[in-house]
Amino acid sequence: MSKKSVRLALVGLLAAAGMFTVATPAAQAATRGYADCNQAGQVCMWEDGGAQGDNWVTRSGAKTGKWEIPAWNGDNEISSVLNATKYCLTLYSNDGWTGRTLTLRPHTYLPNMKTGYNFNDDAESYKLYSC
Ligand SMILES: [Ca+2]
Ligand SMILES: [Ca+2]
Fold first, then answer.
1. 100 has a pLDDT exceeding 50
2. Which N-terminal stretch is annotated as signal sequence (predicted)?
3. Is the same domain home to 61 and 121?
4. What percent of the chain stands above pLDDT 90?
5. Distance between CA atoms of residues 12 and 6, nearest Å
6. Number of the ligand closest to the Cα of 3
7. Which long-range contacts (CB under 8 A, 24 or more apart) does 106-109 make?
8. How far is the CA of 77 from the centre of ligand 1 (A)?
9. How far apart are CA 47 and CA 121, in angstroms?
């Protein structure tokens, strides 16, 4: 079973147990699209190519730093990335800023990591830094 299937099954179980209410689509936050992310000068990462699917990461470009991609909300899922900040963005294939890396220069968009980058569904943590 894929991680996504496990996640969906878990949500179903918890909902069936009455532990929480499943939000209707209208109640969920709108997925952040390419245009909004670009205009805001942020880092955004999406489940699918072309800035589609779940928007797992939205990070301000106001300051540098290191962040985890949450284990059940983005790890090994990212297929497109926009770095609309003035900083360099390095993706790491493992938690804790370890493993293989892929670096995006400032103002760079990778619309489809399935082709050519050898990093599809691979990123688990990331860093923003001056370069
Ligand atoms: Ca993906
Ligand atoms: Ca992670």
1. yes
2. 1-29
3. yes
4. 74
5. 10
6. 1
7. 106/131, 107/83, 108/82, 108/83, 109/34, 109/80, 109/81, 109/82, 109/83
8. 4
9. 8
Ligand approaching nearest to the C-alpha of 71: 2
The predicted pLDDT at position 14 comes to 56
Same domain, 73 and 125: yes
pTM of the predicted model over 0.85: no
Residue 72: give the domain boundaries.
Answer: 32-129
Q: CA 81, CA 60: separation in Å to the nearest integer?
A: 14
Can you tell me the mean pLDDT for 28-54? 89
Instruction: Tell me the backbone φ, ψ of residue 46, rounded to 5 degrees.
Output: -125, 155
User: What mean pLDDT value characterizes the chain?
Assistant: 87
Q: Running DSSP on this structure, what letter comes out for residue 21?
A: P
Q: In angstroms, what is the span from residue 18 Cα to ligand 1's centroid?
A: 30
Instruction: For ligand 2, an ion, list residues with CB under 5 A.
Output: 68-69, 75, 95, 124
Task: Give the ligand with the smallest distance to the CA of 45.
Answer: 1
pLDDT exceeds cutoff 70 at 60: yes
Identify whether residues 102 and 49 lie together within a single domain. Answer: yes
90 and 66 fall within a common domain: yes
Ligand 1 centroid–CA 120 distance in Å is: 7
